[in-house]
Amino acid sequence: MDMSNLTLITLAWELYGQGVPKIRIAQHLGKHRETIILWMQGIERSGLSGFLEQYENAKKGEREKRQVDPILKRRVWELREREMDCCGQKIQYFLNKEYNSHISVPKIYEILKEKYTVRSKWKKNQERGPIPDAIQSREVVQMDTVDFGDLFAFTGIDIFTREADVLIAPQLTADFGYQFLLQSMRRRFDNHVHLIQTDGGPEFKDEFKKNVEKYCDRHRVARPYRKNEQSFIESFNRSFRKECLGWGKYRYYQLPYCQTMAELFLKRYHYHRPHMGIGMKPPLLKLKEDDCRISTEN
């Protein structure tokens, strides 16, 4: 049956006038029973011609968009700025946690576009090179460095739990690479992991290379120009720049300040900042919840 809705409404009213039950009319016209009920109620209020005119006018033009509470908009914008231009999923997390407000991610981005220029950071269906995978903690740790002028940040991350560590150093040398290896293994990665992956930079050779296998079963060097193999640490480095030290250059005498800022960032990163890769939980809170669940199950 290929008819316009105006014709169907007229036919439905004629059938209804003949005493045909609404459920049978709905079946005959291929419409939902509630639709037929609404049609009949509208015709009884306005008459057939009046209802048809109202129905046709209602279909013209775009419907007015539902208005969002201005207070909710302000909260979205404030969270965006407070959390260092974070994504819509994180804003949704904080709205729910701090204000018990529930709003969809698309609606959050719609609100953000009223004030900010929002661009997609990722290309869909982009081919990615192979990277070591992890199904449990301490299986794969990726390490890298970030250039801050006269200072350098040595960074590392467990790709399963997303726990991370940072050391600010005055030189990009294997001695400081080894110093970072000692620090991160002792205070963050339980002194031993299955695989440590680095790039082929000089900071991960010599002293670092001589000692790395004391703390892992295997050391893997990522292939040159394949940043996707270091995707987890590259993502962490971007967050560290954006939310901590930025893209500026620092002098030698600013090392204590930069290390203090790095420690504050790590505290926030581990206990406050939710991570999409682990179910919108901060890394150490997620780890604590998992430990409690395992203890309960046992």
TrEMBL record:
It comes from the Bacteria. Pfam families: rve_3, Terminase_5. Residues 128-290 form the Integrase catalytic domain. One of its GO terms (biological process) is DNA integration. GO terms for molecular function: nucleic acid binding. This is Integrase catalytic domain-containing protein.
